[in-house]
Amino acid sequence: MIFRSEASRGYTLSAPATAYVGFLVAAPLVILIAYSFWTQTYVTLDKTPTLKNYSEAFADPLVRHLMLRSIWIAGAVTVVTVALAYPIAYFIAMKVRKKTIWLLLITIPFWSSYLLRVFAWKLILGFNGVMNSALLMLGLIDEPLDFLLYNEFAVVLTLAHAWAPFAILPIYVSLQKIDPSLLEAATDLGNSPLQRFMRVTLPLTIPGIIAACLIIFIPTVGDYVTPALVGGSDGKMIANLIQVQFGAANNWPLGATLSLIAMLSVGFVAIVFVITATRLGRRIR
Amino acid sequence: MTDRNIIELRGVEKRYGTFLAASGINLDLKEGEFFSLLGPSGCGKTTVLRMIAGFQEPTEGTVLIDGQDMEGVPANNRPTNMVFQSYAIFPHLNVGNNVAYGLRGKAPKAEIEQRVAEALEMVELGGLQDRGASELSGGQRQRVALARALIMRPKVLLLDEPLSALDKKLREQMQFEMRNLQQSLGITFVMVTHDQYEAMTMSDRIGVMFNGRLKQVDTPTTLYARPCDQQVASFIGEMNILPAQLLGETDNMLSIDAAAFGRIEIERNPNVATSSKDMNIGIRPEQLEIAAEKPEDYPSTVQGTVSNVAFYGENIHYHIQVEGAEKPISVSVPNYFHTVDFKRGDAVWLGLQGASVIDLGTDTK
Predict the structure, then answer these.
(1) Which of A26, B223, B286, B357 could form a disulfide with B332 if both were Cys (CB 3.0 to 4.6 A apart)?
(2) B76: nearest CB among A190, A200, A285
């Protein structure tokens, strides 16, 4: 018998996933950590362990600047996306009957490639783009606006659009789980619709909001396609610098170090955020 | 209980498309009364309760609470509070904050704390303010829901199947507790239930509903002794319903020829609409005498065979097959020192007195 006990059956069933994760996540991570302690000497690797990469990274104002900007942009994307996603999720969960169709509509952006969507924004926001042409045609502006593209704003807008479904779904699920009689009870106890939302709906959807924030914040900090395409020099992020280290600069150890610093920073911000949000939620009575 | 009407329903009707959830509801509830709306599921009793609470607006008719027309008054501005069937305990709040919910921002902090403590004391949960909502048992949840509603000092407390989620023992205990609470507070309670025993043990009056209509509103004893028709008669307690012929009548008495039991004089039931030639009578199982020998002193006796025996502990139920009756006649005997003990197939005698027979009139349907 292969499946002798409950436990061995569990191990057997989870073995493929464990192997997959082991080879494709744990192993690369170990290699990444190892690299961060090595040194690149032109074409060869010096494998004597050193902290030189770390001291170099921490000393460089560019690294600090890009890291802070990445966190700032990702934070802005998160706030904008969740703020826009909440009403949509609320509408689908509370107000409509054919929820499946609406959820299907939400996923439509995924039917085209992420890259295509970024390019689409480039076409919309560009100097001769859709937006400027339309505004010119309507006579609202005399010359094309040049602050639409190649800056932080463009990055935030593009990412917020791309990640919207990821924010809508977890919030929708947490709204869907709320027992309607809880809302009636709040009304019965004298709450206006707004008070009821602040005191029952919002606190009960905090887990969904936290999930949405993390799902958006963590990947966007490390995004490099969008900033590279629509960010210009103002919109460059930490991932663009890391990409350069692994590419043109050919300094893998420094790239590995920057990756790890980015990872730890994101982890730290995420943990602080989760703790703060949970605490705030508990204070609502 | 006072004579003042706290709730008045005037020709209240609720339609969903073409479906009539409730219609022609006219009802006056007295201040301090424990009133139950009783009926099978889907009869519209919850709809009536929700129209009083303000969660649903009547399609037609008027709801008055304490003399005020409630049209356009939303649920949060009505002087009523509700205990929900699921109890609707806020899962993100502890017991104290659940109970304090409706008072937040409306009273000083110290007063809220004191009133919460009193309310919890009242439902015998004193000192459990810090208990989390998820750590409560079913009975405790029910008490928290009760405290949370009563702390608002409502003019009317509405209860939607408040005991249906509890097990039998706890349910019976809560029936008495809630009744005592209601009497000591003097607040009007309106309870919706499908459980006739619950309604009977707790209520001053009961309104029986079928298919969106209020059939009969009476005290539990009157409902039991003088139901207005077959439907009510068979819903409240157990009832043998037999066809009968009306032979003659005076102001108070009817002379009938009942299936199997023959000619018998019975009292006229003032609650039935009409009693014409073809009518029905009802006999409660505990009102029949059962004996091995032909019983003396009974104007009507009949012989039959035991077709089924069910032992309930406090009493024994017999099904007696009698000639002339379609269905077996149900007889219930108190288990009193085990004086009767018939087996299936035994030949027995049934004895019936006129006073035990309920005139159910002629169905006008």
Answers:
(1) B286
(2) A190
Task: Please judge whether B86 and A200 are an interchain contact, meaning their C-beta atoms are less than 8 angstroms apart.
Answer: no
**Do residues B213 and B274 both lie within one domain?**
no
Cβ atoms of B133 and B94 within 8 Å: the answer is yes
pLDDT winner (highest mean) among A44-48, A94-98, A137-141, A267-271? A267-271
Confidence band (pLDDT; 50, 70, 90) for B344?
Answer: very high
> What is d(CA A5, CA B124) in angstroms, rounded to the nearest whole number?
48
pLDDT at residue B21 is higher than 70: yes
What is the pLDDT at residue A211?
95
Instruction: Render pLDDT for B36-83 as a digit per residue (tens, 0 to 9).
Output: 999 999 999 999 999 999 999 999 999 999 999 999 999 999 999 999
Report whether A28 contacts A17 (CB < 8 A).
Answer: no
Half-sphere exposure of residue B144, counting CA atoms within 13 Å on the CB side? Answer: 31
Look up the CATH number of the domain holding residue B209: 3.40.50.300
Distance from CA of A188 to the nearest CA of B (A): 5
**In-domain check, residue A237:** yes
Using an 8 Å CB-CB cutoff, list residues of chain B that contact chain A. Answer: 53, 55, 74-77, 80-82, 84-86, 88, 90-93, 97, 100-102, 104, 106, 148-149, 152
Q: What is the CATH number of the domain that holds B335?
A: 2.40.50.100
Domain of A279: which CATH number? Answer: 1.10.3720.10
Do B40 and B182 reside in the same domain of the chain?
Answer: yes
Are residues B58 and B25 part of one domain? yes
pLDDT score recorded for residue B322: 92
B241 bridge partner residues: B282
Q: Indicate if the pLDDT at residue B260 is higher than 90.
A: no
Interface contact A283, partner B, CB < 8 A:
no
The Cα diameter of chain B in Å comes to: 75
In angstroms, the CA A57 to CA B15 distance is 72
To probe the interface with A, which of B55, B56, B92 has the most A CB atoms within 10 Å?
Answer: B92
The single residue listed with the structure tokens 């809880």 is A182
ipTM value of the model? 0.86
Q: How many other CB atoms sit within 10 Å of the CB of residue A100?
A: 9
Contact (CB<8Å) B148/A189: yes
Neighbours of B145 (CB within 10 A): 25
The answer to whether the CB atoms of A188 and B104 lie below 8 A apart is no
Closest chain B residue to A281, measured at CA: B92
Spatial distance between the Cα atoms of B268 and A16, rounded to a whole number of angstroms: 82
How far away is chain A from the Cα of B162, in angstroms, using its nearest Cα?
14
Give the range of the structural domain holding residue B307, as residue numbers without chain letter.
Answer: 230-361
Domain count, chain B: 2
- B53 to chain A, closest Cα gap in Å: 8
Query: Is residue A35 in some structural domain?
Result: no
Q: B318 with B331: CB under 8 angstroms?
A: yes
Which residues on neighbouring strands pair with residue B256, listed in sequence order? B246, B264
**Bigger pLDDT: A228 vs B339:** A228
